[in-house]
Amino acid sequence: MNTTAQPQTTQPDGNGRVDVSQVIKWTVYSLLLVNFGFYFFEELEIASHTLRNGGDFLDWTREFATTIDEVAWLSLLFLFEAETYMLSDQTLKKPSVRWSIHGVRLVCYLFLAHTVYARVTTVMDYEALQPATQVSSLCQLTDQGVSFGKNYDYTLITPDNCDSLAEDDTFYFTDDSVITDGAGYALERKLVWIDLNDAITWLLVVWAIELAVRLQNRNITGGVLMFLSHAARVFYAVLFTHAAIWAWYGHWVWAWDEFLWITGFWAIELNLSEWRDEIRSGGGAANAPA
Questions:
Q1: What total number of domains does the chain contain?
Q2: pLDDT, tens digit, for every residue of 184-236?
Q3: Which pTM was predicted?
Q4: Is 2 contained in some domain?
Q5: Is residue 12 part of a domain?
Q6: What is the 3-state secondary structure (H, E, C) of 70-130?
């Protein structure tokens, strides 16, 4: 954040130079918007299988947890971009601007809390699953509107494919209209735990950024709290691990999305670093309430 608003120098300056960092940053932001559209349609397709027989409001929000999550994260990202780069100190000192930013961020955190709730519920559901002993063959379920799911890929069970879908004869109903085999259950059980861990890790990352923003709004660039906000960067290593696991299991879009989000929030970290340098050099404005 500057005493005056930062120029968005993605266009050539008088010397014909382009601010490459800004080009990269806004390219990443644009790609994240594209990914949002992908996740919406992917979850719409999954819901056509898992909620084939209907569901209540919470069931639908659980199925679209990633879409809801993406809306909240995109909002947070652009709010942090505005507060750490685009808006001037004078603008941020205005109560209407300051409280609007904080209010919208609070709503975003509530949405992210819903995501954690959805992940916890999913983990509990998977941990409580028992084998469907009444099913010994998928051919018992043909033409009943039941899909076979494995690794988040779903196929409607028909007489033509019922003998070729499963790897073993132990089955689990992961939803009323979705069944998987023992190998599929073991894999998805692992993945839902990773999803939960990922949601919590991202909250820790964004809270560290929130802490740094509030401290720097008070022209504080050192101390224990600022050290803690910097130490939280170790969580990025955890997020890269999640991306590697998803890529290993063939979820390349998830891995790519994780990489984009890490890059997007690193851009915010860069904004914070430039802002700290300005404060330390004496260019920061008078203390602004957070």
A1: 1
A2: 999 999 999 999 999 999 999 998 888 888 887 777 777 787 787 777 788 99
A3: 0.77
A4: no
A5: no
A6: HHHHHHHHHHHHHHHHHCCHHHHCCHHHHHHHHHHHHHHHHHHHHHHHHHHHHHHHHHHCC
CA distance 252 to 65: 19
The torsion region of residue 29 among left (phi > 0), alpha (psi -120 to 50) and beta comes to alpha
Residue 5 lies in a domain: no
- Domain limits for position 206: 20-280
* 172 confidence band (pLDDT: 50, 70, 90): very high
Query: What residues contact residue 96 under an 8 Å CB cut-off, 6+ apart?
Result: none
Residue 247 domain-assigned (yes or no): yes
Quote the pLDDT of residue 15.
52
The closest of 96, 87, 173, 71 to 128, measured between CA atoms, is 173
